[in-house]
Amino acid sequence: MSHRPPNPFPGRRSVLRGSLAASAALALPSSVGTAPSFALSGRPKAQWGVQAGDVTTNSGLVWVRSDRPARMIVETSATESFRRPKRWHGPLLGADTDFTGTVPLRGLPAGEQIHYRVTLADPDDYRRTGEPVPGTFRTAPAKRRQDVRFLWSGDIVGQGWGINPDIGGLFAYEEMRRLNPDFFLCSGDTIYADGPLSASVTLPDGRVWRNVTTEEKSKVAETLAEYRGNFRYSLLDENVRRFNAQVPTITQWDDHEVVNNWYPGEILTDARYTVKDVDTLASRARKAFSEYFPISTLPSTGEDGRVHRVVRHGPLLDVFVLDMRTYRNANSPGRQTDDTNGILGAEQLVWLKRELARSRAVWKVIASDMPLGLVVPDGATDIEAVAQGDPGAPLGRELQIAELLRFVKHRRITGTVWLTADVHYTSAQHYDPSRAAFKDFAPFWEFVSGPLAAGGFQANALDGTFGPDRVFVKAPDRANVSPMESPQYFGEVDIDGGSGELTVRLRATGGAVLFTKVLQPGRVGQ
């Protein structure tokens, strides 16, 4: 397996300088640490950094947030000197999108490093511009022989563990940045809107955890402004802004973007909430989510869109991003013998089968915001994910997954790998019909990684319906272990352009590789 060096091209330093300048602007008054012309003029500032998303062979999205109304302008170039740049005129950023905006870039060269910079212009005088903020990303390769590397994880700022300056903030992002992936797959729970932060928490060993706090993170999010503030919170951390300026993302959501274990139509009984209608909360959260991440299918204007999508990353890889939250039925004990809606909804299942059948990529990564064979409870009797603990024939939401797995087998769709987060530990499960109650499917792997910046939890029980074998697991022995006490986890995927082999590594912060699995291309089951 060939590997690119950690920093394969010059010019990375200029990206980092831009990110550090943005972090200084967040920490200091606007008149300190900036050039006098900007400090005195009141020009727009992009203090929250930049980020790119949903990058393909010839396209990508670039995001920014302004501190006031501004016109967004993006320039791209093959070099960091921005010789002969191409200019892209973006939207007018205003209060209707919380001063965020995204510019789609099309017609980009494949497999190339793209340097970009975002400039914010005063809408009343375009000559009055803020300081450009630089970023970079690599487009997907058009040729099979070019390697692909990406990372995945999820579960960010959860269970009361926020940005702690004593441990270097959200330090996992810096470790991931140094690996120089082509992109980062964020597998959901990008915020914990239902998890307020306190200024300090005393750990079991007597040490004190300190959180950076904000007004919006002081209570559960209910208003649009509170949801927006939750999405802004991670951007206070310079590790995150540095990472975003270098690594494009593919982002999905799960429950904590809204409220724990939510489903459409739910009415809350949680006394912390004055708004009890989950559909109202979900609508507000979805708008804020669409404003703060560059997602190709989800505009920030309030128009119809969707989280589920395919991001095509060249001939070696298609990423199928699922939405197991928006279309699911109500959480229940999961013992139904007929369940057409399931966890995906009928229409999303049709979409997924169609797109999997159309895919010509060597590897088809199914980005699932919840695991398949791990029992994730919701209270004493209900089930939050797919598996419900009965190892027999499929019931409840398992019926929909059985239909999908049967389809993959009978259509002889090769190279499917499931990646997920959600459960706050890391593990590898191999599913095989020889061990299963339901046998009409081909073997496959599911890899779990997380949390990225949240509490760690014990391993969940397995459900035998699809025959999972837990080949590897690393989890705490008690609930809600802080990032000060236990490593955080993320996964790495390398696809070799020559052999087509896919290598999965489950990583812990601190540099350890905990588990490695090499998969061969062109097989229906592994």
UniProtKB/TrEMBL annotation:
It is an enzyme of class 3 (hydrolase). GO terms for molecular function: alkaline phosphatase activity. Residues 1-27 form the signal peptide. InterPro entries: Metallo-depent_PP-like, PhoD-like_MPP, PhoD-like_sf, PhoD_N, Phospholipid_Metab_Enz, TAT_signal. Its EC number is 3.1.3.1. SUPFAM superfamilies: Metallo-dependent phosphatases. Residues 156-506 form the PhoD-like phosphatase metallophosphatase domain. Keywords: Hydrolase, Signal. The keyword Repeat does not apply. The keyword Hydrolase applies. Residues 49-139 form the Phospholipase D N-terminal domain. This is Alkaline phosphatase D. The lineage of its organism: Bacteria, Bacillati, Actinomycetota, Actinomycetes, Kitasatosporales.
